[in-house]
Design a protein that fits this description.
Length: 245
């Protein structure tokens, strides 16, 4: 990974969290649309870009790692409370332990997502026979982390945590994926090991993206608005267009 990519991982997440300091009460519908777009892109990118190479390199064993990533994300959500899906829930009686639980869940998830980034360029070139397109995994993580950072800051502000605590949580969250990528750069992973890491992240992506997409706009009528459907199609279209690069 280049220095620019490390900076993108950090700056974009901090930027998404910073927006919540001004627009947390006025951007709920826009946040839902942004989440729908990112969920659609992540799902399309995962199926069309990541899964073929992972199964080619990892074989049948990749299935178990995908399931492991899926259920690990399910467990982590017990700590993060769905903040990675843009949920903003805070109860006054939970304020003491809430920040710790959310930060542990989000930080572990972000660190694990960052691990395969360092080696994804070589993996992508080996299975697509060109070097362009390795930015797809990074873009998927960024699209997912930006609204998550927004929701995290909005949640902490509503829970009446002090600004130093909120900023500290945001900085820690923004640092975890770059830290994961940096850690992996010092570990000589083989091709099959990279495939296992990616399969694990795929399982996490499948859980996150489908949870986002299955959350309807109206929980009573279980319907999806035309605007949400449009942004879902745009997200899928972007993933499909990237597959032709």
């Amino acid at each position: 990974m280049s220095l620019i990519e490390y900076l993108l991982l950090f700056v974009v997440v901090v930027g998404g969290g910073t927006l919540a300091f001004r627009f947390s009460d006025r951007a709920q519908y826009a946040l839902k649309l942004a989440l729908s777009f990112s969920g659609a892109y992540i799902l399309g990118m995962t199926i069309m870009h990541l899964m073929p190479g992972v199964f080619e390199q990892g074989g049948h064993a990749a299935s178990f790692w995908i399931l492991a990533g899926f259920f690990t994300q399910l467990i982590l959500e017990q700590l993060s409370r769905g903040v990675e899906h843009g949920h903003i829930h805070a109860h006054k009686h939970e304020r003491r332990n809430f920040a710790v639980q959310v930060m542990i869940g989000l930080s572990l998830h972000a660190f694990l997502e960052g691990l395969p980034l360092t080696h994804f360029e070589d993996f992508h070139a080996a299975h697509h026979h060109h070097e362009e397109g390795e930015f797809q995994l990074l873009l998927g993580i960024l699209l997912h982390k930006l609204p998550a950072a927004f929701a995290l800051v909005a949640l902490l502000l509503r829970s009446r945590f002090s600004l130093p605590v909120v900023w500290s949580c945001l900085i820690i969250f923004a640092s975890m994926s770059p830290l994961g990528a940096l850690t992996a750069s010092y570990i000589p992973f083989s091709g099959p090991q990279i495939a296992k890491l990616l399969a694990f992240v795929i399982g996490s992506f499948l859980h996150i993206s489908t949870t986002i997409l299955f959350e309807a706009d109206d929980t009573h009528q279980h319907r999806v608005s035309w605007r949400k459907l449009l942004v879902i199609l745009l997200g899928m279209g972007l993933a499909l267009a990237a597959d032709t690069i």
